[in-house]
Amino acid sequence: MANFGLSKPWIAKLDAATGTYSGGFKCGMAVNTSISPSYNEASMFADNQEREHVKEFKNAAVSLGTDRLPVQASKTVFGHTVNADGEENNNVSDEPNYVGYGFVTCEKLDGKTKYRACILLKVLFSEGEESYETKGESIVFKAPTISGIAMADSNGNWRRKSPYFNTEEEADLWIQKQLNVVAVCAAPVASVDGGSYTEEQIVILTSATAGAKIKYTTDGTTPTAENGEEYSVPITIASNTGLRAFAYKDGMADSEMITKEYFITV
């Protein structure tokens, strides 16, 4: 399957102890990126035959070419000091930070353009060459490139890919949610957990996000902005029902969807 596009490069600082991200920013416009995994390998031979072979992920070489590196990169990625007025100071003792790095690609699936986001969960970037050239009779663009190493996090994960989306905006939002760039509504909580019951159940849905609204379905379909009922009163479950719901609020990303299966045997 061939990729034929690249866009929306995002970077956010990683707190390796908690696995959370902060200070996310869009890293200009993407020009190119490459990811080259490397592995530790070993073989055991016995009776003149290879009896066992072990191959484990080691790390991945990463490069990002962009039309510009915003000032946030100096502080968030490379650990430099940036004053309120934008003045930047690079010290020999500055140390780069672990970051998450995400981007969007597009592919053709069954003749249709689909978008998919990719996030490298723990990357340590190094500053690349800064090249400048005076303008002469011809114009030469000097696009910055940074390179680094992607490593596995404390859970052994090093890369995460989104589902396929119909629009670039959906894939872009997925990255922002993963890197904690935008606030996300708290997922709904059902007052009655899924399971088997001998009588009808009254289910109350709540979200910890103040002012959030909830959309839900009980017909097996997925609730969306266009599909489902807006929650306003407790839901009566009188027969076998699959309840799906998500929370939403203006200015925030939609919550993850919850699914509860109820089996009523009267």
DSSP strand count:
19
| Rough outline | globular
Mean pLDDT comes to 90
Helix content: under 10%
Number of helices: 2
Strand-residue proportion: over 45%
Structural description of this entry:
- Helix content is 6%, strand content 49%.
- The longest helix has 11 residues, at 168-178.
- The protein is mainly β.
- It folds into two domains: 3-178, no CATH class; 189-264, Immunoglobulin-like, CATH 2.60.40.
- The strands form five sheets. Strands 1, 2, 3, 4, 7, 8, 9 and 10 form an eight-stranded antiparallel beta sheet that branches. Strands 12-19-18-15-16 form a five-stranded mixed beta sheet, with no helix packed on it.
Q: What key attributes describe this structure?
A:
5-stranded mixed sheet, 2 helices, 6% helix, 8-stranded antiparallel sheet, Immunoglobulin-like, mainly beta, single chain, 2 domains, 266 residues
Helix-strand blueprint:
Layout: E1 3-15, E2 20-26, E3 30-46, E4 49-66, H1 71-76, E5 81-82, E6 88-89, E7 98-109, E8 112-126, E9 145-150, E10 159-161, H2 168-178, E11 189-190, E12 195-197, E13 201-203, E14 205-206, E15 213-217, E16 229-230, E17 235-237, E18 241-248, E19 258-264
Parallel strand pairs: 12-19
Antiparallel strand pairs: 1-2, 1-7, 3-4, 4-9, 5-6, 7-8, 8-9, 8-10, 11-14, 13-17, 15-16, 15-18, 18-19
